[in-house]
């Protein structure tokens, strides 16, 4: 039965994540808008990842990477609307790039998308060879995995308050956000990261343990937490917060 479930899950993942398709985009008429509208869209767009963004900075060319080689939040907001998830692959829609896009920016954008597509395939392969029984959905340009379908809804991510939280994975072209419920964080602290299989699909086990331990320290304890957490990992700076 477990093998059958895995085959069914991987089949849906294959359709969603790995199915090949042309990387070219057949542009519809609504994409051929004026440069003023395109710039306005870039300025007004808000990413879930970045929070408050200086609009003037977003509309102007930026240095894509930080000192440690990760991409910064301004770069993500500037180009997020130019990335699409089509046929299980992320693609760059060159027709909606800002007119003042620099050569450095487009190179980093293309490389980021290439890495994201490679990681999608790796994630699908891990699920195929494991006993993980997950629900997979596409939400905009994100792929969300959860072992319990009721956890696919977003939860609060404020550092000021703590909630029991949910366990799920959100995959974006710029990185992964792993949500761990209070119970699952405590399981990881007690038994190790393999006790929560979904936590290690796209994230190194050492970082899952390290950041779960950081949450415990923030609670004033060494081996447990009193709330669910989220962890960012990938091309973006690694950090965590309370659900």
Which short descriptors sum up this protein?
globular; 243 residues; two-stranded antiparallel ribbon; 2 domains; alpha+beta; 8 strands; 6-stranded antiparallel β-sheet; disordered N terminus
Low-confidence stretches: 1-58, 154-160
Describe the sheet with the most strands. Answer: 6 strands, antiparallel
Strand content: 15-25%
| Series of H and E elements | HHHHEEHEEEEHHEE
Tally of distinct domains: 2
Rg (C-alpha, Å): 19 Å
State the helical fraction. 25-40%
Total of DSSP H or I helical runs spanning 4+ residues = 7
Secondary structure class reads alpha+beta
> What is the end-to-end distance?
34 Å
Lateral strand order in the biggest sheet: 3-4-5-6-7-8
Write down the overall geometry. Answer: globular
Q: Please tally the β strands and state the result.
A: 8
Mean residue pLDDT: 75
Brief overview:
This protein is 37% helix and 16% strand.
Describe this structure in words.
The structure is a single chain. The chain is α+β, with helices and mostly antiparallel strands and 243 residues long. It folds into two domains: 126 residues, no CATH class; 108 residues, no CATH class. The protein is 37% helix and 16% strand. The protein has seven helices and eight strands. The strands form two sheets. The chain has a six-stranded antiparallel sheet with strand order 3-4-5-6-7-8. α6 crosses α7. It starts with a helix and ends with a strand.
